[in-house]
Write a structure and sequence with these properties.
heterodimer, A: alpha/beta, Elongation Factor Tu (Ef-tu), domain 3, Rossmann fold, 4-stranded antiparallel beta sheet, 15 strands, B: 308 residues, alpha/beta, TIM Barrel, 8-stranded parallel beta sheet, 14 strands
Amino acid sequence: MAAVEAVGAYTLLRLGDDGGDTGAPGQFFMLRAEPAPAAAYLPRAVSAAWAGDGELAFLLDVRGAGTRALTEARTVSVVGPLGRGFDLAAGPSILVGGGIGAAILPWLRRRLEQRGDVRTVLGFRSPEHAVCAGIVDPDATVVLDPVLVTEPLARLLPASATVYACGPDRMLEAVAALCAEHDVPCQLAMEAAMACGFGACYGCAVRLDGTWKRLCIEGPVVEAARVLA
Amino acid sequence: MSSPDLHADLCGIRFGNPLVNGSGTLDALAAGTLGLGAFVTKTVTLHPREGNPPVRIAETPAGMVNSIGLANPGLDAFCADHLPRLGELGVPVIASVGGWSPSEYATAVARIGAHPAVAAVELNVSCPNVESGCIAIGTDAGETRALVERCRSETDLPVLAKLSPSVSDVAAIATAAAEGGAHGLVLINTVRGIAIDRDRLRPLLGGGGGGLSGPAIKPIALHAIFHARAATGLPIIGMGGVASAQDCVEFLAAGASLVGIGTSLFADPGLPQRMLPELGRLVRQHGAETIEDLVGVAHPRLSSSTRA
């Protein structure tokens, strides 16, 4: 059973939890509309917005046949949880989200609030896209294009906190560099096209430790230093 | 009514069921064997390879185009780290080998073929995603014959040639492999393809072109298997777009003794486990007792006395 609702420019897909393991924030699931349309034969790798209370929720940026099929499906097949999620550190946290990267932060924030103060900075390309900030953190600092999310982040640093970031590659590189400059620990949730999600296809190659690695096995959450290496 | 026998045979090796993965579509050390009757390794080359730069995969109608570029740890690490663990999988292991010259293939075949974990060797002469070698050999009948002959002399294990459909006459290449002494054939590898980025109007994949796989290529695979079987009578591991038990019996009928799954494993790792009972039902429905009974039945003039 699936329920679909608009959250500004994005779409929230809420699936009934069948009782299986839902993993931890930052891990991901392979989602496929069933029966799979020919235009979207492969599943989509998506990290949950949250899990619990009998549901598994995903915030989607509906842009092509695959995401559209997910929002129109009566049944969605779910494989997961897969990969490595966030390593939750003790003490204060700073969450950084860019665009649809904000989608995986609500669950993380709920978990981190139990460990200390959480500050959130988010960047979006339009006010419609920024509507989802409300489900991430009602007190978030939000910037809109062309302002970069690194601007409010820079004002929070240096800090005795752990930074958790998800967004486009160039944003993640800038956040990693900023955190390295201030010697602040930083974890990045990265994205890459995946056909399988369990190490078989080698499609999700990302540059880690100076070489191409499978993001589905090494991540999708990695220590920022591995990207800068 | 007793359930049909799903055992399969190829080159004297007995398999619990006829399903295998296509090379490079499963990491059994990470994900297990998913109920398959055998495991085929990702292609191993003499030296380690990082693979091609991203983007490496693109979805296309009923399939995908990939340009991975034979990313692998190289022969030394494969023999030291992978093979001992592959021996514990509990199913026959078919090791896939690639290279840029006959001597590279021969070196890898000799090393890998000597390991007790390996049941057969696949010569990948059909990877579309490297600049030279591999498919450059497999598109030439003379080079294919010579390569197979050379590798046969390096091992006592069955040697299988994995062929590309992107040639003008796949039966001619299959015949050359047979003349070189191949014990069996694996076909098809991916079909050469290209994906164009819809916004930039430039090739989408980092490697430029790539290999097409998925249900879109099933008729091409059946054609290649049918004609390779007719031309050589060799046992075949057939693959290309298999996504259901029905597909599986069609591949058996075209001449495959084992049937490979690739892209559909990506989309649905539970598929082999669900296919097997359905496969048993279809075997029975076609009046057969065993998998072997259906192999090659699509060939009208192939009598049982000429079947390999």
